[in-house]
Fold this sequence. Notes:
Elements: H1 8-23, H2 35-54, H3 59-85, H4 91-125
Helix pairs in contact: 1-2, 1-4, 2-3, 3-4
Amino acid sequence: MRNFKELRVWEEAHKLTVQLYQETEDFPRKEMFGLTSQIRRAAASIGANLAEGCGRQSEGEFSRFIQIAMGSASELEYHLLLSRDLEFLTKSAYERAQTQLTRVRKMLSSLLQTVQSSRTSTAKAGS
């Protein structure tokens, strides 16, 4: 079992979530249960899935939760694009969020590769 707060990717995902909660404060009230909620949910889901994966017993389960976090990151990317195109996010706010999201996605990919390599090495050692 890992401590999710020690993962750099979790720290970055958490920062992104906080940033997006602040950015979505000024979205239209009619979007509170629409796009605002979707952005917040997708962003929070990245860190939440990392935390849940860290609480699992096997590397395989941890890998699965990293993959779920990656799916949430992709969903968030679309919601940010839509928010920009609907002019709910300024161009600079969109670019800041997109830059941070790209960093998180790269870190998730790297973490997944590391965990999967570890699983492969452990399986070969057990053979």
